[in-house]
Amino acid sequence: MNKDLILDLLKKVRGGKLTPSQAAERLSSLPFVDFGDAKVDSHRALRQGFPEVILGEGKTPEQVVKIAGKIADSGGPLLITRILPEPAKFVIKSLGGGSYDPISRTLVYRKGKIKRRGKGTILVISAGTSDMPVAEEAAVTAQVMGNRVERLYDVGVAGIHRLLSYVEKLRKARVIIVVAGMEGALASVVGGMVSVPVIAVPTSIGYGASFKGLAALLSMLNSCASNVSVVNIDNGFGAATVASTINCLK
Using an 8 Å Cβ cutoff, are 35 and 67 in contact? Predict the structure, then answer.
């Protein structure tokens, strides 16, 4: 963060040359923090309502700690996705706190309680227990972003009576995330039962001809339920971000 720029903006506000809203708009586009191998967008929360999220996959523990420290210092909350247990322990020790979930492979660090932002409930549904890692990535992300989250797992179309017994829960949600592998049919079924946005997440779970999630992705893209939109394979984080954006609309 460039302190000289901020001081200049504050002086202009005090002198009447800028309104507070104009100054806030300029603050939202201030530069990032350059670490060389990483450039931390320290103003993302101001622009988008939530700080930059770290993808732990492909980064060294030292790189993650460096980025995480800056985000945590700015007030957080901090969310790291796709991080393995050993690097997670290193990050938690370095930050002096945090919680790790081995199912979703997420690490959350925050100071104090998370402020509630969402207007309603985001319901995360999984077709099978094997889809839980992606479903939990979505659920944890949505919770950290300030939403009320409910879960409904292992209700795939192979035993559709399981889903039908929760119709009222489906219809009370403001946004629904459906996580499914195999042929991905669950998203269309749920979409046809509700009047709210359904965000479908294809997973790489399935046998040979599922092509590591491609079959589910194509099925979801061709859904006959018109309220279904689709994110990429195994992208629980992306689904939760979109769901949170919808749920936080006034």
Answer: yes
Write down the pTM of the prediction.
0.84
List of residues 6+ apart from 54 with CB closer than 8 A: 64, 67, 68, 71, 78, 79, 80, 81
Q: Find out whether 83 and 106 touch, Cβ atoms under 8 Å.
A: yes
As its CATH architecture, domain 121-247 has 3-Layer(aba) Sandwich (3.40)
What is the pLDDT confidence band of residue 65, given thresholds at 50, 70 and 90? confident
Rounded to the nearest 10 degrees, what angle do helices 61-73 and 85-95 cross at? 40
Helix (H, G, I), strand (E, B) or coil at 19: coil
Query: Domain-by-domain residue ranges, the chain?
Result: 32-109, 121-247
Q: Answer for the pair 91, 65: CB distance below 8 angstroms, yes or no.
A: yes
Alpha helices (runs of H) in 39-84, residue ranges in sequence order? 44-48, 61-73
